[in-house]
Every structure is written in C-alpha cells, then in structure tokens.
C-alpha cells in the first residue's frame, strides 16, 4: 500500500501530465473565427474520465495558471491574463469546472457527463464572447455552432480512449 505522500505525488504528477497535454492540444489549432478549433476539449474529456474530480479540476487550473503567468500554453503558443478576460476567456475559465463535472458524473453515464461538461464550456464561452462582441446571437453562431460536430467526435474518441486506458491502468484508484 502506498503512503499518503506517494499517493499525493502520483496524483499531482497525473494532474501535471494532463495540464501538459492540454497545452499540447492547444497548439493543434485552426483559427477560423474568434474561437480556434483545438484538441483541448479532447484532453478535458480525458482528464474528466480518467482522474478523480479534484485532480481533474486541478489539472486544468494548473494549465490556466501557467498561461496566465506568461508560459505560452494557450492556442498558437500565446499566454497572458488577457486570454482569461478576453473574448475566449469564458471557454478557458470553464475548463476546470467542466473537467470536474465530467469526473463527478462519469460513473452514471460517460456520454451525459461529457455533454454536461461541454455545455459548461459552451455556455461560459458564449456568454463572455457575446459580451465582447455585443451580440449574443452572433457569439452563438461563431462560438458554439461550428464546434458541435467536432466536439461530439472528440467526446466519442475520449470515451474510447478512456475505456482502453481503464482496462490497462488504474489511474483513479489512487486516492489521497
């Protein structure tokens, strides 16, 4: 049996790995409008499906802190607090909450958990983008609608990957 400090360090390492994966996913980016297409949501789904709720939340919080303090982890190797309060800030700020909710709800239904998590990202992202654009209808058209199909695909890919990982590793069984 692992000591408490070993369990804590193991979980912290996993959270850090998912923060790094989120940063890597942000760099696979296609800018078609005010909100870039990235692989971040795929990593958020995976963090939620594979980590305990608090560690899923922490992994995305680490990612946001790194970007806020100037480490270029956001899309297109960008950084700064301006991203958290700018037009796409709502999406970013929703990431930890989304991962937490996905992790909490996954035992009931992984698809539902992913949809709820994605709903949080879309809602906060749409609201902040709408405030910046001064037009919530336009914000929905450019900040939500174009992403639905691609994000649905990411959801099913994440479910498949997490099932594969669950059969081979015991990431969630390590508790503090």
From TrEMBL:
Q: What is its main location?
A: membrane
TM stretches of this protein: 35-51, 56-75, 81-102, 111-132, 144-165
List the record's Gene Ontology CC terms alphabetically. plasma membrane
Q: Which InterPro entries match?
A: BioY
Protein localization: Cell membrane
Q: Write the record's keywords in alphabetical order, separated by commas.
A: Cell membrane, Membrane, Transmembrane, Transmembrane helix, Transport
- Entry superkingdom: Bacteria
Taken from the record, one Pfam family name reads BioY
Membrane topology per the record? Multi-pass membrane protein
Name this protein carries in UniProt: Biotin transporter
Can you name the source organism?
Answer: Fervidobacterium thailandense
Q: What is the lineage of its organism?
A: Bacteria, Thermotogati, Thermotogota, Thermotogae, Thermotogales
């Amino acid at each position: 049996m692992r000591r408490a400090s070993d369990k804590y360090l193991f979980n912290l390492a996993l959270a850090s790995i998912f923060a790094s994966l989120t940063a890597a996913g942000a760099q696979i980016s296609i800018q078609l409008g005010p909100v870039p297409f990235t692989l971040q949501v795929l990593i958020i789904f995976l963090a939620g499906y594979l980590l305990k709720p608090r560690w899923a939340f922490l992994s995305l919080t680490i990612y946001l802190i790194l970007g806020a303090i100037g480490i270029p982890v956001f899309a297109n190797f960008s950084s700064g607090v301006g991203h958290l309060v700018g037009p796409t800030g709502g999406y970013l700020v929703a990431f930890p909450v989304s991962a937490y909710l996905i992790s909490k709800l996954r035992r009931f239904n992984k698809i539902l958990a992913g949809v709820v998590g994605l709903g949080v990202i879309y809602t906060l992202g749409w609201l902040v983008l709408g405030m910046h654009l001064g037009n919530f209808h336009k914000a929905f058209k450019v900040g939500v609608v174009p992403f639905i199909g691609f994000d649905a695909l990411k959801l099913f890919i994440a479910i498949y990957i997490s099932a594969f990982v669950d059969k081979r590793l015991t990431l969630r069984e390590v508790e503090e």
